[in-house]
# Entry
Amino acid sequence: MEHSNTLVSVIIPIYNRSGVVERTLISVINQTYENWELLIVDDGSSQQERQLLSELILRLDDQRIQVLFQKQNLGGGAVRNIGMLAAKGEYIAFLDSDDEWENNKLEKQVEFHENKSKNLVSYTKSTIHYGVDENPQEPLPAQAIEKGEGIADYLFVKGGFIQSSSLFGFRSVFIQCLFDTTLRRHQDYDFLLSLEKKGCEFEMIDEVLVHIHWEDVGTKSGDRFYCPDVSAHFIETRKEFFSNQSAAAFRLNNVFAPLRVKEGLRKSLYKGFWGDLLRVKIWRIRLVTLSLLFFKTTLPLKLLFKLYKFFK
# Structure
């Protein structure tokens, strides 16, 4: 298969983000691999935001870009589904409306998939930017998923990282594992678990090809990530995908940790907490949990780590 003739459908969901999406769109336009279509699925943004987005598209003047406006807000999973079902490409690549790609991202992934199984799903390393003036963190993930390793064990026990803006795979496979639109959170995790159930294998390209922007984490707008009740329901209804250790790690990180920080100690100690703490064999997870338990913060761990690096 000649990759120069293979169309890639890039899908960007957007909701009232006209102020940050320009850098995202430019990172697509600047791709060295040029045979792509870009589907921007607007999730019921305000009239003013829709107008600003339309003006931006006109200014960029690239016929490969189209916008699919939705009349009402449906949620990120629903609009990604709309984009996948409308896509014409053989491959699908997701990109969040505030993230950026390196110029050779699509080229690398198209080449990586050539002459390989349609069940292959690739992802790349990423850097995360938490603030406008802050340096990005060390690239994630630190290690790739191993052959035969479960997605839940990789993500929640080993600390793996598969972010949607780095995902790449065949449309014919992706549309069989559409996002669960009933979930308020963890739709990305659920999509990965569905792909795993479908028989997909995951492989990492060991290069930083994605830059993730989480500038609103820790702000009022970042409070949308706070929903431990949704996390508790998610793990309860998807036990089949989790080992005992990965389920325990998920609950400690997504149920205990946010409750401890926001609601206090008493409300954070859910039934089975101590069993989960013992069930997790990874000391990194245990130490983070214990730090939150006793100090309500991970700052002591960070200080110890800095001292360790200083005297090493």
